[in-house]
Structures
1.
Amino acid sequence: MAVVVMKFGGTSVANVERIRNVARHVKREVDAGNKVCVVVSAMSGVTNQLVAYVREASLLHDAREYDAVVATGEQVTAGLLAIVLQSMGLQARSWQGWQVPITASAAHGSARITGIDGSEILRRFESDEVAVVTGFQGIEPERQRVATLGRGGSDTSAVAMAVALKADVCDIYTDVDGVYTTDPRIVAKAKRLPKISYEEMLEMASLGSKVLQTRSVELAMNHRMRVRVLSSFVAPEAMAPVRLGQLEDIGTVVCDEDEIVESQVVSGIAYVKDEAKVTLIKVEDKPGIAARIFGPLADANINVDMIVQSVTPDGKHTDMTFTVQATELPRTLETLKAAKSEIGEFEIQSSADVAKISVIGIGMRSHAGVAALMFKALSDKGINILAITTSEIKISVLIDAAYAELAVRTLHSIYGLDAD
Amino acid sequence: MAVVVMKFGGTSVANVERIRNVARHVKREVDAGNKVCVVVSAMSGVTNQLVAYVREASLLHDAREYDAVVATGEQVTAGLLAIVLQSMGLQARSWQGWQVPITASAAHGSARITGIDGSEILRRFESDEVAVVTGFQGIEPERQRVATLGRGGSDTSAVAMAVALKADVCDIYTDVDGVYTTDPRIVAKAKRLPKISYEEMLEMASLGSKVLQTRSVELAMNHRMRVRVLSSFVAPEAMAPVRLGQLEDIGTVVCDEDEIVESQVVSGIAYVKDEAKVTLIKVEDKPGIAARIFGPLADANINVDMIVQSVTPDGKHTDMTFTVQATELPRTLETLKAAKSEIGEFEIQSSADVAKISVIGIGMRSHAGVAALMFKALSDKGINILAITTSEIKISVLIDAAYAELAVRTLHSIYGLDAD
């Protein structure tokens, strides 16, 4: 017997027929003797419709009212799934965030879960009742208002429920059957990773591999909750129910690195194409110049990612290159022009035709030469590196977007990730 | 200053543009210094969509889950209206049933309101905050589940809120501008009634004049809460705000008969065409025969309305005529056939081509001859009466449906209801 939290996103519950499919996944677990809490998102499209209503009502709107409206999407799914489960002969009931209760901070629209009382759900596990919980929402305890966690928050709801219920695993059902060494659409030889550490998954998630929401991985890491990525599109009866010790047979288990016996130096290659490069040319090289450039950008809430500073031959000027989200490029250029009096004279160049390629692996910590191998491989293919950033378990390079696929394939092969 | 509850139904909040129109009605009241609680229904069509989802999930469904799903419709409207009101510079917040709280019985899907704590809303009236409350729902206190009141329950929610807040009036906005002496589509000379008593309105409501839900009128009568029927389709700024003592200038005030100074003997003529007539011919006239006929119908939850029994010339048999809802006719015939062993031999005739015409007026209590005038007027037009029922303030006759309009026009004229 295992306690299992199962989370299903919007496309997995897009209509009643898909909800029936979800119910069969749940039934498989119950039939195997597992105790199940299901966390659901809104039917795909519903949240967008509700948000559109709110925007039509007023572009500037009270976040508490936005939450009251938008949170109804999950409430509909939860009730419908409970009904379908009952029609299959299972005991089930829906739980809205305030009913559990899941308490949340007052930051409406992007609230954080502050506590969960899972005692009543645990009590009902004893009589084999399935709990169907609305994702994405909680209740702000002081004013007793519904608070939503922000887009993608249902992953976080699921992990938080798993922690509260001391679950053995939190299974996140998606439209992919696991986490791969890289995007299979680019590299046919990409392999499913049976296990990946929280730290690696965090780098993957923040680097555009949109399988899991970053915050949910952080939460899982903090509480050492095993999270598994699975596909809801596999026939429910063709999938084995949760058995402890055999989790990695399907999907990808995100877990503590201690649980990964044979870890590879590099686990995966990630890439993003939605960054833009900005270069300020011939900025006067005076003390505090970086603050004068990046201060106004921070004030404008523009996230700067990679930064490279190079001094020009005259020694008095510097070129400053950095990247921002491509969608932020126009605002970035405006903000810099407005700050010209502080920064001084400069020329500006920008381009959205760049890609960031990242090599990720917890093994890097103990293995030297990973970066050198990367730089040489790219150089051998004639790919120019525009900027570099590194963390303990990741090396990212910025390159011309035209070479993105070539770079990913090259690195995937050179680090031994290609499937046989 | 008055405390006003304003209720808007589905067609009045059908989309964001219509919700904006509702907000202008509210603003008019706030600008006049009134304290306002608004009760809203789901946007028209939304409840039907949610019910369709539930039915698709399972035809036999847990009423508690049905309620969890269906109650979201009003929650969306309430949030949107609060946002629009705020955008007009008013203070407003939405209240879901469980937040007020409005407690309800555990009869999910057709729950009754058992209590309302309006103290927090009253406290916020002091700082001119508008309360936007979800109609149609409450919370069942023992299990803390959402419970809906059944279709049309938002009228009842509004009256219950008005009672809890000790409001001066409960204004129900509909798609008609008041209660008329009869259906203006049949009688062009029909007049708006400035006032009508609770008792008369109850007869009107239960007789097919679908302006107000019966239960809401009963509740208003029990608490002597003034209810006014108004049109939400009149331009909000063209309507006078609530002023006590001048309520009857627009719409129709449903109130205690003591408030109606010059009451007419007959206030209105109602008609329904959705009944069917059933006649059992030559039933053996033995003791308990009525129980043997109507017992099985009651067991099958079929409501019988009018009953006429006539003895045949031989003295040993009786003909039994009664009416049921036309939609129940097939089930009625089946049930009677199944009960043949108890009832004995009989022939059966049935027809849905009948109409029930009712003359309603609180003045009947003290005026004799109202019924005689009705029978004579119908007889003069050659209209045959198939059955008769009466109450203290109502006389109903069943006639051939072909004569329905003629009968209504004739009676409207003879009781002096025609407009000049």
Note: The longest helix of chain B spans residues 16-31.
2.
Amino acid sequence: MLQPLFYPESIAVLGASRTPGKVGHDIIANLLASGYGGRIIPVNPAASEVLGLPCLREIKQAEQKTDLCIIALPSALVLEAVRACLDAQAGAITVISSGFKETGVEGAELEHRIAELCQSHKVPLLGPNCLGLINTENRMNASFASRMPQPGCISVISQSGAICTALLDLAAARHTGIAKMVSIGNKADLNEGDLLIALAGDAQTKVIIAYLEDITCGDEFVKAATEASSKKPVIILKSGTTVAGQKAASSHTGVLAGAEIAYGAAFMRSGVIRADNFEALADYGALFAMQPLPKGKRVLIITNAGGPGTMAADAVEKSGMTVATLDRNTASALRQKLPLAASIGNPIDVLGDAEPDRYVAALEAAQEDEAVDAVIVILTPQAMTKPAETARAIAGCHKGDKPVVVAFMGGADVMPGREELVAAGLPDYPSPERAVAALKAMVEYAAWRKRPPRMVARFPVNRRRVERIITRRQRTNRLQIGEVKAKSILQAYGFQIPQGYLASNVGEAMEIAERIGYPVAMKIVSPDIIHKSDLGGVRLNVTSSEAVADAYDLMMLRISQRAPEAWIEGIYVEKMLSRGLEVIIGMSRDPQFGPMLMFGLGGIFVEVMKDVTFYLAPITNEEAIQMLMSTRSYEILKGKRGHKGVDLAGIANGLQRISQLTTDFPQIAELDINPFIVGESGTEPVVADARMTLQAPGVTR
Amino acid sequence: MLQPLFYPESIAVLGASRTPGKVGHDIIANLLASGYGGRIIPVNPAASEVLGLPCLREIKQAEQKTDLCIIALPSALVLEAVRACLDAQAGAITVISSGFKETGVEGAELEHRIAELCQSHKVPLLGPNCLGLINTENRMNASFASRMPQPGCISVISQSGAICTALLDLAAARHTGIAKMVSIGNKADLNEGDLLIALAGDAQTKVIIAYLEDITCGDEFVKAATEASSKKPVIILKSGTTVAGQKAASSHTGVLAGAEIAYGAAFMRSGVIRADNFEALADYGALFAMQPLPKGKRVLIITNAGGPGTMAADAVEKSGMTVATLDRNTASALRQKLPLAASIGNPIDVLGDAEPDRYVAALEAAQEDEAVDAVIVILTPQAMTKPAETARAIAGCHKGDKPVVVAFMGGADVMPGREELVAAGLPDYPSPERAVAALKAMVEYAAWRKRPPRMVARFPVNRRRVERIITRRQRTNRLQIGEVKAKSILQAYGFQIPQGYLASNVGEAMEIAERIGYPVAMKIVSPDIIHKSDLGGVRLNVTSSEAVADAYDLMMLRISQRAPEAWIEGIYVEKMLSRGLEVIIGMSRDPQFGPMLMFGLGGIFVEVMKDVTFYLAPITNEEAIQMLMSTRSYEILKGKRGHKGVDLAGIANGLQRISQLTTDFPQIAELDINPFIVGESGTEPVVADARMTLQAPGVTR
């Protein structure tokens, strides 16, 4: 679909100009300079030629249809120009001009009309407010960035034109090749998802790197990113993390979940590799572009100096990868080839006076060894060191079945080596730590690619019952669902809840208690009271009929004093739960990515330590288990120092049931089961307390 | 003292050689090439001249005494050569040769003899197994690193010659100047501490950066580093962190404390700025060398693109610094100078088409504004951007009273700008994140420099009593001190312990319980039993005389069954404690740095969450409070959601008392007060259980 955008046979530039520095001039100059072979058609009513090319007064004068129309006119003229392009049967349109959504409501309105117009004609629109695009395959620099990159296999998507130019500049300095670069600007029509799909299908692109400030549509993004990541690595730098607005939330889960966490969950689900900063984006991109994925995470380090070798080993260990142990045979074979003082461990220290041959011996050994998944080669510029020769030797013996990354440490002296390495497809980093970070990203992505197929379980549930409760509540605008109703919703989705009934007077309370057996818990039921226990609305461990009566009357008295306005439905009398570990499971609906499931250990773990994990729904059983394992308190769950562990499967099951419930009912905005009481392995966990919040009617996310 | 090393008027090279590539040749060549103006005296029995210089057969032929003798001979000849140098009244000796401690026991023995010899003559010895040293002030490259750096104010200490050369190479590429560079090698005599002191007193040195793999003597290091840091910034990259050996430890504190934590504590105490990786060492060094310390931590960001501005703001927030708010007057004055579309917040966005003048307007405003402590200037290479001119303009309006750091993002296009910046004393970083990290290091160091004077409190204690207990235990080799004796030691140091007595039979136990009042706790006392409760040796909440008798007999029965070999002293009967928060305070003696104090919240916080802090003893009250505040669980200590906080002063006091105890008694290897029960503010905390381990007699650390 994006063929006319990336591979146009003709390009019209509306707003073509003869003045250097003007966008309408520079784009044409860039197209010419880059060697674009198609027709270039300047359009400007006031000029007869631009840069030696004949100029049309209007696009409708074009004799044939134009594949790509680039509009570089003042924003007020853009709508008209788009219409003219569509009339002239443009295959794709790029609006470079700014003055749209980024300037306020009027601009947004104009932008919206342009996008609608293009969409109604099924013509893809890039921009507005963008830099344009570059394709090195057909030598097309259809942007106003003057630097045409060398051809390569990394494609770039960027929401910021400045990041595009900075990346192009960095790529030039690092001799990195680019396949395609797309500046998506305001994303009125084509957004990151569309381009991920397009580039995933592009034969020239081996790696996609992207800079994003926001995401147009969460669902679409997750789908597109998953599809793209399943074919090739997608590395994203997402800015604006800490400034993410806090939304008002009434549940624990809601308070803990923020936009930043939602992006993390969406990236994890989609297999997106996250770059934490600008350098990491380029660092990771280079490694994925040049080297194969590793089979595992066992890393071997080769160095000509002890200190940097230790730094690398430290970094490998901290990253969660493993410092490989050489096979005994490999080690003894290598021993023959290196001087006696060399260390044949991991790191392999080829010593300060190492010439290229020692690096070759060590790298060959590492590549042959089955116990090694990836290799880091470190060089420091010492008296005898020959960076360029060593680089060439490393490149010469690099087999290409395992990733090899290089860290030539230093500056001026190692620079020739660095260039040779990159030319030979070996990524070089200025420090061991950056080499390790890039390798770590690769190990994680390789693991994601090998993940089992996602199988989301569907439990048999009573969906009708939940539908009825929710519909009634939304109709009457009672959006806070308290404990009793929340529990019946959860029960309809297969959760075990303690036996209990609502009592409207003392007699009923006593009767219920007798029927279900002591001890019982008693809790006030009122749509107006959220923090029941703060107002004296909860009594636990009530052990006799008289105590039930006392508790009932006292609770009613206290509530009438402390919350005289509250409408009281009655008092809920339920069987006291046996002891167990208190955990919290919940859901908060992210405006972008929909239901995010939360898990954490109860009390201080959640409140003080923030030791919680989030995952996008729907969730598989493996992912639910993964959620438990990614908390630091997992040690407690699985048992420690003589204490038995708890029923992990029960928690995972609960998370999947919430996943199903909140996927079935987009009306649920937030849900908290807190605490969810979990017993020993084999027992079924029980919902001790729960709460939900519904969306206002009509809101679907 | 190190004058002859750094400023020799004559340098003899023993092992001078005519063969390029040999160390004895290259050092002389480097001395000549660097423009060293003193006398150079090659010494070699087999040569009459080296590199055009007349060569002595032996050092004793020298007519005058030689300030610096550099020995580059095979290790077997070094002892004899050192002796000859000392006889010839050398002022300082550098042994370049390897083949010493790093090769094993024999080498270590040889090295030790050489060091002793020099020390007995009071002649400083650098090395062996080192690269030599460089001083740009007197143009002396007395090393075999061929690259002579440009003069500057950063001095380098490195335990690895390879890191020296890598840093020199990096400095050349980044146009960074160096004052002195010292490769300390095996540190047989001169170590990091000596050189910190020397460079702290060196007028050319403004910043010290060091790469260390170990530290020769913890106490000396802390003293030297504190002295140096009090004069100028000391930045250290310490490798070998995760591979630090785990020592056998019996206390909680001992298990949690490792060499890595001890280094962290020592650096914190000494004001040392820690670099986490090779690039950070150079990054931080450059900033400290070029810019003044900030007065506070409020950072203003100036950018010509939104995305990178947001990245910088994110990084500032995450680092713990503050995104500054411009003063209203500054903001409105700036508004006049920038286009309407520019954003006058923080970041200040001067827009993509910004020419140098807009950067100047923004930087001038930021420098004038009292609400700004530091400035980060970001530039991305866009169509209209003029990196070199902008760099020159920034440099031109930089006033120098607040730190200004720059991030020119990109590569080839921004490079000319980068060079202009560095030439003008403005450090430039390739990404906003690295600029922020360097600034953060500076903010922390500035705060350390402004710390109040350290006042370690001395509490009145009964030192004699503790001395008696410890001496007796060491004499009889009973090094594990159980609860009862540990409590009496702590009581002698002013800790409150519950009232309690040792009972040797049932009758005594009942009598004690009656006397101190119910409820009581009962605990088995045996030097052979460490985990009392695991064997049924603890009963809590015993509430009557009969229950005391039952508990006594049952406990004795169980212990006789479960630990028949254990020698039983009796059963300790003590007053049950009222409830409170359980914390752990303890001490583990680090082999390098001596007593390290530990604080953490009890139970899972320590065991699972590892939420603990360490500090070197002796500790001040401020530092003790700081220890509490640096745990994540501090929120619980100070009270949260209606819960009252605990007596923070009581915990801080306890830590100071342990500090005094373990400083007074180096015989104590480990100490754990677990739990230390802390009540509400104003109450005194109580030692609920405690344990100590003594050093074997004769061991002092």
Note: Chain A touches chain B through 77 residues (CB under 8 Å).
